[in-house]
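To the wet lab folks,

You asked to see what we're planning to order before we commit. Fair enough. Below is the target structure as tokens, and below that is the sequence we designed to fit it. If anything looks off to you, flag it before the synthesis order goes out.
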């Protein structure tokens, strides 16, 4: 035990020599993480899936029935909240479509409405941008395909009903029967929201977009930060560890001193990154709703981030113990950061992944850290992820101890 303070002081000196280089990398990672969060937040605000789709309708201006149908659709139908139809000239519609101000353009041929009365089907042309692969273009294509199928099947049903009345009920007017059937179809379509129930998720247990990316990119920062500390592990003397073990200062003391020095480096990096994120987010006016319930700044995230950061620090320490060289250690740390960040939902919401990947990501250290941060930011009464954080921390330290003991004995 007398060797413990001396060895700990030695590790602190080694960490102090690495501190300037580590802080330079920390500043770079913090700036990149903050800018990434800002870009992702701004892109989501401009996302086409969050906007009302705009579809132009052009055709014979003399067909008032089309205008009346569009007005009815826009005032009664529930789709008016997500899709807007606008009557315009064909030339104007093509110009707006080319500029990207329209999601699609529907062209009705001349005499379309009159042809319907006589049972004649005239095809409707739908135009979209050639490179349109965004959410808006895909949604309008699905919408047009659904409407086309609906019109075709409705025509078949109406004409079939008229033919049946004409043959089976010669004393009845087949056109009145067709009109009544059209009315029933229209009522069913406009009142289709009764066919299903909309359930919204519990927003009290969901992070905002800015809060989500703040948690995810904070964990990615911790995962990638360990690459900057590769000299701290590559320049340590393995022979010294074996000599100290032979003289009675075993693997437990060595792992304890090195891990504490490593974690102190991480604390310095987190303090600098938190201060820089606070300045950048304030400069660009990005509000985090979850943090405004507390101190109202990115610095208030640091206490909640400490347990997951301690766990990830132990995991990174274990990876360096597993690696045999500086190059393999850096590659292992980088691959671990990328894979965990992706599967755990740090870069992209894990809810979009298949069920198997979601379960795997939730079991990874970064996934446990995301659940723990979410519970802390939302101030949930129960945080079951915190238990897994401490279990992982002890497990990683135990494995590092076993590896060091085996290496010293060899």
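Sequence we intend to order:
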């Amino acid at each position: 035990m007398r060797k413990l303070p001396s060895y700990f002081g030695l590790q602190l000196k080694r960490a102090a020599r690495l501190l300037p280089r580590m802080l330079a990398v920390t500043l770079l990672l913090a700036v990149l993480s903050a800018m990434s969060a800002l870009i992702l937040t701004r892109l989501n605000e401009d996302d086409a899936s969050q906007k009302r789709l705009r579809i132009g309708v052009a055709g014979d201006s003399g067909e008032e029935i089309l205008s009346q149908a569009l007005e009815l659709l826009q005032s009664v139908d529930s789709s008016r909240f997500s899709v807007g139809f606008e009557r315009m000239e064909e030339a104007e519609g093509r110009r707006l479509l080319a500029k990207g101000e329209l999601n699609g353009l529907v062209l009705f041929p001349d005499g379309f409405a009159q042809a319907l009365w006589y049972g004649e089907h005239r095809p409707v042309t739908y135009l979209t941008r050639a490179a349109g692969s965004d959410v808006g273009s895909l949604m309008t294509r699905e919408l047009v395909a659904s409407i086309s199928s609906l019109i075709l099947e409705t025509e078949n049903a109406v004409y079939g009903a008229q033919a049946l009345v004409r043959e089976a009920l010669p004393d009845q007017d087949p056109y009145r029967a067709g009109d009544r059937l059209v009315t029933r179809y229209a009522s069913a379509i406009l009142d289709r929201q009764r066919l299903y129930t909309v359930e919204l998720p519990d927003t009290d247990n969901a992070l905002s977009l800015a809060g989500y990316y703040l948690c995810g990119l904070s964990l990615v920062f911790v995962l990638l930060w360990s690459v900057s500390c590769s000299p701290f592990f590559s320049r340590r003397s393995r022979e010294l560890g074996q000599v100290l073990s032979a003289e009675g200062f075993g693997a437990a003391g060595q792992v304890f001193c090195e891990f504490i020095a490593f974690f102190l480096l991480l604390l310095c990096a987190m303090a600098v990154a938190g201060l820089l994120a606070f300045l950048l987010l304030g400069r660009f006016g990005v509000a985090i709703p979850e943090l405004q319930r507390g101190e109202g700044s990115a610095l208030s995230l640091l206490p909640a981030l400490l347990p997951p950061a301690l766990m990830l620090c132990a995991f990174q320490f274990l990876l360096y113990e597993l690696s045999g060289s500086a190059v393999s250690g850096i590659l292992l740390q980088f691959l671990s950061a990328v894979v965990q960040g992706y599967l755990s939902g740090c870069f992209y919401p894990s809810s979009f992944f298949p069920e198997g990947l979601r379960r795997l990501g939730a079991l990874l250290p970064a996934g446990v850290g995301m659940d723990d941060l979410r519970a802390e930011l939302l101030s949930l009464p129960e945080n079951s992820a915190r238990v897994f954080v401490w279990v992982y921390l002890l497990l990683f330290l135990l494995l590092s101890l076993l590896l060091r003991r085996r290496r010293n004995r060899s």
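Structural context that might help your review: The longest helix spans residues 3-45. The longest strand covers residues 53-58.

Thanks,
Computational group
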